[in-house]
Amino acid sequence: MMSSKESILQKIKQNQPKDLNELPNLEPLKESNLDVLEQYKTILKSIGGDFAEVSSYAEIVAFVKENFDISKRILTTLPELSEVANLEWTNDDPHSLQNAEQILVKAHFGVAENSALWVTDEIMGQRVSTFIPQYLAIIVNKKDIVAKMHQAYDRIGNQEYGFGTFIAGPSKTADIEQSLVLGAHGARGLTVFILG
Amino acid sequence: MSSNKTIPHSEAAAIFNKNEERVNWHDETLWFVREKRDKSAHQIPEWELLRETASQIKLNVLSNIHDYLVEFETNAQKNGIIVHWAANAEEHNVIVHSILEKNNIKQMVKSKSMLTEECHLNDYLTERGIDVIDSDLGERIVQLRNEPPSHIVLPAIHLKKEDVSETFHEHLGTEKGNIDPQYLTESARHHLRDVFLTRKAALTGVNFAVAETGEFVVCTNEGNADMGAHLADVHIACMGFEKLIPKREHLGVFLRLLARSATGQPITTFSSHFKKPREGKEIHVVIVDNGRSEQLGREEFRNSLKCIRCGACMNTCPVYRRSGGHSYHNAVAGPIGSILAPNLDMKKNADLPFASTLCGSCTNVCPVKIDIHDQLYKWRQVLVKEGYTPKAKTIAMKTMAAVLANPMVFEIVGKSGRFAMKNLPGLVNNKLNKWYDQREMPEVPEESFKEWYKKNSKSAKGKNDEQ
Fold first, then answer.
1. Do the chains contact at B227 and A185, CB–CB below 8 Å?
2. Which domains occur in chain B, in start order?
3. Lower CB count within 10 Å: N or C terminus of chain B?
């Protein structure tokens, strides 16, 4: 008897159009004259995120001390922030991160058109780390903001990862009468440190 | 969870319309979402090029889907993902259940997946003693109320905050009468956090699967798919085979279109790319056919498989907005649901292609340029021809065709019709004539256009002058 895989594939082969439709050229979509930094900041604000422009990690440490509750559990994967955040958790059971108040990680790059930040498991420490804490802070180099998603995927190219995600703003829902509420299941707030 | 008895769309819509205030609210709320989509789209100068590009990518996929599926499976397996194939809903459910049984798991958390709605997975698992909790807030609300989602993106859009408050009071013990969305959402957050932390299996849908890399992408705003998947030992992702796209770079096109078309957001909060399981954990992908290969063979309807499930066609549809998602008695409601559903079951869904004014707004907003309203029109012809439409409608259509085909008959019928409407209104405006439901009688013209033209055209006037 044919397996389901074989029968599905056979039926598809029989029923799909006989002529191949060519793939389109993506190059014309890449054109852009956006002021990427300004656009990035505007969009981030409009989707409930916040930002701080900083020139060094020392400034980020100072910002954290001033604005975050460091008596609570703060995680990071960045040795530069060890003064205000814990580095020893990446091999723990992911469930044990449930009491984390805040995490700070560094994104590969950001995207101006939607303010999304690209992070992969290599810089997240644990996959759940950017979802489970109450608040999220992500650092991105000022020079690492690209215009649109096409540039983003050019930049990702053949990058190897087990898991990667674009994060744009805090987690949110409008499932109750279209009223926007920040902090659905993931972070209640996102601070982006624009470094450089 | 869904009832077995199917109420035809027009009857269900009539019930929905009994509460006028509520219908108006529903209508306006969805139109508001449509307007957000417009605002967002208009900010992208190359929007139309983006739609055209997405459409071409999807056409390429449909014409080469066999090879892309094989490529995807090979690459996913290389990544350590276990791939399953399900010919139909039943097999899909059996596969999911067997994965849970094998891992001795009795409780599962689930993020949004319209495919599992289509397959009635929750019912299947519940009957076998598996506890399933939907984690998308809207889906959790309707699940607690024992209702199916009424919209693919906004599952609880038919409910008011008072309804949610009642439901949460009953099931989650929230304060009676507290209707603050912030408070209600916070309560659900606490309730579902416990769920995420205790479930060993998480099921998600798939927005896009990439043949080139063997990865798949899941988009959410709430972060619920990620909370489930990254805390569970077993992640099961279910997808219709049309979710495939050729290359990773094509995600750039679809992620630009999806959220803007759905809710007007520039992108969903999370666009998560799952490529490999965590060490010692499992990712399963279930590739489902369930009628899709048949639809692929229907030349006039195969383009419906381009759909990326954004819901824009529902938000803009004047019939959907005023009849509600449940009136479509199908996992996917609205215009797109009405062209997908007859393929699944022509008899049960014969009413759906008629639940449209054919205004074409759906086609205009579709991010992948599906000719939705043309397909609705074509389905009507197929359904009448195959004898799936109600007798009264078939007879009426056949009579009309006969009348329109014969000018002399047309003239006589026109004359007697005008006479009847004027002098015997009860003959036409009665309960048997559905056309008069909620419609006023138009004023009856004295004569037909032909009669008027005979009297008033230039040549007639000339003749009159000569006389």
1. yes
2. 44-290 (3.40.50.10420), 301-385 (no CATH), 393-466 (no CATH)
3. C
